[in-house]
Every structure is written in C-alpha cells, then in structure tokens.
Write the structure tokens for this entry.
Amino acid sequence: MGNTHASGDNYINHEKGLWSWLTTIDHKRIGLMYMIVILFFFLCGGIAAMLIRLELFASGPLFDGNTYNQILTYHGAIMVFMVIVPGIPAILGNFFLPIHIGAKDVAFPKLNLASWYVFMAGAILAISTLFTTKIDTGWTFYTPYSIKTGTAVVTMVMAAFIMGMSSILTGLNFIVTVHKLRAPGMTMGRIPLFVWAVYSTAILQVLATPVLGITLLLLAMERTLGVGIFDPARGGDPVLFQHFFWFYSHPAVYIMILPAMGIVSEIIAAFSRKTIFGYTAIAYSSLGIAAVSFFVWGHHMFVSGQSEIAGIVFSFLTMLVGVPTAIKMFNWLATMYRGSISFESPMLFAMGFLFLFAIGGVTGIMLATVGLDVHFHDTYFVVAHFHYVMVGGTLMALTGGLYYWFPKMFGKMFNEFWARISFVLIFIGFNVTFFPQFVLGAMGMPRRYADYVPAYESLNKISSIGAWTIGVGFLVALYVIIEGLMSKRIAPANPWGAKTLEWQVQSPPTHHNFEVEPVVTAGPYEYR
Amino acid sequence: MSTVNQTAKGEHHYAHHFRDAMHEFLTSKEGIWVFMVTEILMFGGLFVGYFIFHALYPETFHEGASHLAWKMGALNTVVLIASSWTMALSIHYIQRGLNSKATMCLIITILCGFIFMIVKYFEYTSKIQHGLLPGKFFHYHEAVSQQLPLYFGFYFCMTGLHGIHVVLGMSLIGWVLYRHLKGEFNPHYFTAVEGVGIFWHIVDLIWIFLFPLLYLVG
Amino acid sequence: MNWFLALMNTVAVNTASAAGKSFMPPVGTEIASDVDNLYSFLLWTSFLGCVILIGGMIFFAVKYKRRTDNDKTPYISHNMALEFLWSFIPLVLFLVVFAWGWKVYHDMRVMPENAFEIHVQAKQWQWDFMYKSGKVSTNDFFVPVGIPVKLVMASEDVLHSFYIPSMRIKQDVVPGRYTTLWFKADKTGDYQIFCTEYCGAAHSAMLAKMHVVPAPDFEKWLQENEEGLTLAQKGEKLYNSKGCIACHSTDGSVKVGPSWKGLWGSTGHTMANGKSVTVDENYIRESILNPNADIVKGFSAGLMPAQQGLLTEDQLTALIEYIKTLK
C-alpha cells in the first residue's frame, strides 16, 4: 500500500519477486517485460539474418532450398511481427507515453498486462512451429503457395493473428490514454511529439490490424476447409489475398516507422537544446501519413496483374505520402539550425537515423515510380530500401531511444564509450551490408534467392561482411545495456537537460510516476 | 495493491489513475467503442470479400441463398433485436436501482442468445445433412453453380464468426449477471453492464447486415 | 583471397562501365533506355536531396556544436515560407516523377497490335514456351530481333513472375488467369530470365535463357518441330475429341451454344444480363472453365459441363489458339 514514498522508493523496488513482475499492472514494468522478450526475439531474428548472409556469402548452395526459405521466413516473420511492430510502442511507448502526458498509468492497466500475455501466447505459438514443420511461405503468406505448402502455416497464421490482437489492445489503450488521461493543462498542442507519433501509430494499429486478422483467419480456413476464396482452382482469386494483406501491411510499415520518428524528434530537440521546429507540422504530418497510408497498398502490387489504372492511382497516392515524410526531415534539420548540439550516443543514433532514412526515403520514391518499379520490384533494390527504413530507421531509433531513456528507466548511466563504439559498428556495418544491395537490385538480382548467378557474387560478399559487423555492433549495444544495469553510476533526474515531463520526475520514476498531479503550463520543448 | 480507491461498499470506486468515477466511466466507454471499431473492421474485411465474389458470381449467390431458410434467419433477427432491447432495458433499470427488473432483463437477454444459437444449430444441421458445406467438404450433388462451395464458405465463415461472438456475448452477459447478483452494480457504477451492452448491440448490428446479405439479397 | 581479387576486379569493371548507366543491366530494348533515363534523373535528384539533407545535418552539427553548457538557443517555432517551400518543391518534384513513371509504365502495358505471340506456361520450377507452330521449349527459347513479341502467361500451380532484366519488364504469372507482357528486342544475344515471385524450394533455380536471333535463324529454329502439329491444330483435335463440336459450330451456324466462327476479338458480345464483353483470352478461359458465370444472350444456362479441372493449361491454350484461327 505505497501511498507514502520513502526516498529511494521507485517502480523497480516498489514490490519484489518474480511474481510481482508477472502480475504487475504498472505500465513501466510492463514496458520492461516487453523489452526483455522483444530483445530476445531480436536476437533470434538476428541469428536468422546472419545465417541468410552466410548462405549468400558465396554462390553455390550451403543449405538446401527449403532450409534457406525457412530461415528467410523466420527472419521476416520474427523481425516484423515480434520485434519491429511491437518494438517501440510496447517498450518505450508503454513506459513513457503516460509519463509524457502527466498520467499515472495507461487508461486500462489490466488490459495492458493482458496484452503482454496475449503477445507472449502468440509469440510462443509462432516459435513452436520451429519444432514442428517449419514454415516456408515468407512472412507475407502469399496464396496459393501458402495454401499448397505442407508446412505449419495454420499455426503461424494463428500466432500472427494473436499477436495482432495484442497490437490492437495496446493501440486501443494508447488512444484512450491520450484522449482521456492528459494532466490539467496538457492540451493536444502540448503533448510531446513522441506521443503524437505513438498516437498516430495506435490509430493505425486499431484500424488496420483487424483486417489482417480476418485475412489470416480466411487463410487458415482456406487450408483447413478449402473455402476457395483465394484458391483459383475453386473459383477464388489469389491476388485478392495480396490486396487484403497489404491493406494491413502497408499501414503496418508506418506502424513500424512512425514511433521511430517520434523518438528522433525527442532526441534532436533535447541534444540541440532547442525548441523543435514546426511542432504542428510534425504532429499533423504523423496523422497525415497515417491517413494516406491506408490508400497506398497497391504499390506492392504493380506487377501482380492488377489493372494499369490501379497501378497509376496507387503510384500517385504513394507520392503524396512522400510529402509529409519530407516535411519531417526538413523540420529536424531546421531544429538543429542554431542549436547547441552535443553528440552523446542517443544523438549519434538520431543523426544516423536521418542519414539512413534520407536514403531509404529517396529510394522509396524510386520504387513508387510505377514505370521504374517494374524493374526493381522483388529485386534486392526493394530489400535494400526497406532495410534502410526498417533497420536504418526503426532499429536505429529504437537503440537510440533505449540509450536516451536508459538513465530514466533504470536510474543508471551506461558506458558512453562503448555506446559510441556500438553506433560506429552498426552504422558502418549497415551501409556496408545494404548499400551494395541497391546495386545488386539495379543489376537485377531477385530477392528470396537461395543462390544467385556468379555475376552477383562479389557484392554479396561485401554485404555479408557488413551484416556480421552489424551483428557485432548490436552485441556491443547489448553489452552496454547489461553493463549499465550492473554499474554503480547513478543517473541524475535529467542527465541530458531535456524539457519533457519524464525528466522532471526522479530516476527511476516512482510507482505512481507523479506524487502530485502535474499542472502543465507550457509546451514540451521550451528551451529558452 | 493500492490501485483501487474504494469507499464504502456498494458505492462507486475507481482506479488510482483516474480523477473520479465519471472519468473512469467515460474512459472505459471510449475504450469499448474503439474496440467495437476493430470488430466492425474485421467483419468489414469479410463483407468486402462477400461483395467482390457476389459481383463475380451473382448466380452462385442467388442459388446459395435459395438453400437458406430465410424464415429461420428472420426469426433470429427478431430474437436478436428483442435481446438488444432487453439489454438496453437492464442498464436502464440498474441506473434507477430497480435491481430485480434488471436481473430479469439480463436473464431474458441470455435466453434470447440461446434461442438464436438453437435456431442456428437447426440451420447448420440441415446444411450439413445436405452436404452444403464449405470448400472441400461440399458434397451436394444437385448444385448448378460451380462456385457453390465458395458461397457456403462465406456462409459458414460469416455466420460462424458471428456465432462465436454471440457465444462470447452470452458469456459476458452471464458474467455481468453474476456480478449484478452479487450487488456490485448501482446507479453510480455500471460500467461493465454498459460495456457488455455496447458489445451486444454491435453483435446484433452485424447480424442485421448479415441476414439480408446472405438470406435475402442472394 | 581469390574472391577478394575477383571482387576488386568486378568493382573496377563495374565502376568503369556503370558510371553512365548506374549498374543497370545492358539495355535490350527501347523502353529500357526510357527506364534508365528516368532512373538517372531520379538518381541525380535523390543525390541532390541527400546532399541537402545529410550535408545540411553535418554542416549544422559542426557549426552549432555545443560550446558551453550554458549555450542559449533562439526560440524558432516555425516559418511559414520555409515550410511551404519544402512541402511544395518536393510535391512538384514527386508529381513530375509520377507522371514520367506513368508514361513509361503505359508504354510497357499497352500491347502492340500484331505482335508475335508466345504462350508461357509456368510451373514449379520451370518455364515452358509454346509457339503457335506447335513448338514447345523449356527454360530456353528464341525470339526474332526487331519484332514486337507478346507473352501470354499462365501458371499451373503457384504465383511466379517473369522478369527480363535487360528489357526492364516484369509481370506476375497468376494461376487461374492470363497475364501479358511485351517487348521488342533491339539487339541479338542471350538474355537472362528470372522468376521473381517466391515459389518454393527451387525458386532461385527457376531460370531461363532467351535467345534473340535474326528472323531467318528464328524461322529455322521454329521449324524444328517435334510433334508436327501447330498449337491451333492441337486445339482443333481437342475440339473434336472433347466434344465441343456437339454444341459449338465453326461455320457460324447456331447449335446449342454460340458458334466459334468470328468469335475471337469481337467487342460487342452481349450477355443474357445485358452486359457486353470483349472476347479475349480471359473471357474464353472463363467461358470454358465456368460456363454458367455469364451466358450469351439467347442461350440457356446449365447446359454446358464446366471444364474446371478437366482441361490442362496446355489444352486450354491450344483451344484458344484454335478459336483465334476461326475468322
């Protein structure tokens, strides 16, 4: 009954024992629980990535085709459904969204804990397929291959369905929290941009994921009952599956990247010690991206056999998504203008994000250009593009965000030197891995190839070496986190001199975040 | 746990992160509504599929609908609408402290759910006997249209998923009834009844779309 | 270290030869040059965009490095003019690129009249090429140089995708329908074909070679015919053996079903429900496999047995070819 807080009491030592963690309804603890499992899945997905690059290091087979396809599928499915989609919202969103708006918890704390268990149930089900028949459909489950293959598609699809439910519940919780639990004076124009980003993401989670849910259910029924909706042999249409799938999965791309943009907004403002430039523009561009993202799914299907007019319309709409993204980039740049910039590791990751996301963005425009995409579609150009966005964007931001908020989450400081080493390794390794893949794609190397013609060998070797460098880089980052947790370097309440609410409470925060409900009188970036 | 601020038994109580009971009530209600949006979108995906294939094979859907007992469907529609009404009434009575009337209404609502499922059971058995089943289990020999198995795929997916929701709704109402009998609800606190009520109305609403699409439009 | 030498060698060769064409494969057709021009434009504008963004970031990072811990920064919340500029200029640029991409795409998608047709049959994991002369070739086929070639493609099992890097064209091959692709090869030579839609264990081995040769050589190759029957002749045999002949005439007389004479390509083919269709591959395919989906005006439903699962893809293609000859 912690109504009084002796000094030193915080959310970590408020209650003790494993049971108190497994039954906690404290959003901060749930965030940490997500962190542990998501980092573990990241390790699994990462191992799969290393194996992929091992196979592709040289022309000629190392694994047989089926094994390679399974590794590729698990890499994709784990990274998408179990790492990048839940990553930032579930870890950092859970931890900081309520504190950012001056709330004591999310709107539905028990539901929040339930989401974690639902997520775990789905994740364990997904991993369980590793011990039955490993699936080989790719994370996209395209029909009719996914109907015909003899592997555990139904289990995997149900696992993704369950994890989707968890995602919906988390999104629902965040939407209501932002609407209803803001502290007095915390108007929508004063919530930090991270909250705007996670809020826009939550809207996408709630509106898009149900459609994925029904699509996956239909696929499961297709396999068990042979309903025929996606099966050409029964009068169905396999391309319809792609429409349904991308109707979710394109917004899902923004579910993955929007929260990363939120983190970058926070870090750049804090380390430039300067008001964010164009708060309104960044906030509304998040919502704009969220809205337009529902109408661009067809750009994944330029060569699928959809009509010419559909290709053109989707190309046009995709170009429109480019604009709010460009706006954000320029706003971050303008925030740095005349700032007082320091380069601790979170800022390095944020700048790394800007660098890589710029490249990911312009190549996105190339892929949106319908006449050019016909050549690039399903080649390594696409692989390079989305890794620039998903890894160069989301994972760089997630790592930067973990460093940025580490002092607040654990009350300890990490080792800055090793954090910078991890940045250098990840950044350089990343470019060495994926830049050659743009060239490979332009040269015409198709994706999801277990083996390639000899002309592609040298660039693949470079790419593999880069991939292993990234691997080492992330292991160093893991070391930084673990070493930081064990260390005795006590973090002050506000090590970076940032202005958002979480830095105004003690590190780590108390069980209730705020002992007295805060009254907000100014915006989140008042560096004057 | 220090998460619930509880005053005297039977009065309103609310979790620590809310300002007052009203704040908690409105927040919970918004949560339920957002969840309902996801439900509608999920069924929305099925409806889109239905419309696409209806446009593709109108004769098939016509033939399929001719195999359905529209009278049973209509009966179920009436039953569900009635149950929605009793559900709404139960909230009305709880708000006025008329607890035994509310109990009555909740019981009738659950009974309506049972009637719905029983009618559904007879419909399903008749389909199964005739071999009017989805996809590869279809073995009705007088089918004219090639895609009839596809139609029954839609029929069983849509009504099946809806049926699962009805059963879920009945369990939820059962849970609400149990709490109501324990005296947990009063004119100041009835969030759970309200939430389950909204869910039940949405389940009805989906049926009101399903019935004409499957049985009548054909 | 062998691979390392090979690598340096490739890097040198690539940089030397690719400076102009940015690593794109050799150009095999006119559209490929259009694609490459669009690509270079995008590459240069993207480069410029990255220089502005990344260069600007590095410049600011150096220039506005924190001097003391008490640095004061100006309070700049927004600037309408700037914000308008960096929304508007990208928008205009994107729209230009969009329109340009549209044009190129349109050229790819509009099938030329009188193109030389080849049927492509995809299955796990091979490509079959069927010519009207009855010639069938697997994973290796010939086309004449300088003549537009149209590929009519179908799949027997799962999705595949037909990709000729040098022609910059690609199209998914979808079971249950026909998709098309065209190109006009400008240079003789051998070209690599890839399957680019994931299709299972041997996806990366589903390769083919296309030989572009002068017309006389092509004719010679085409004459090396194994069965001695053209595709249309095979179709005619099926017309008799599968019983189509009972209900469909080839001389214009009306039997139980519509006559096939003059059917191909007719545009005002009226259905019982009033809609009017154009007779093309997909229409005929549908009418054979699922005859009751659309009934021609004046005929009755439910009479023709559906052929779904009774005809192979090859047989369907042969029948369609036969119908095409019934002018």
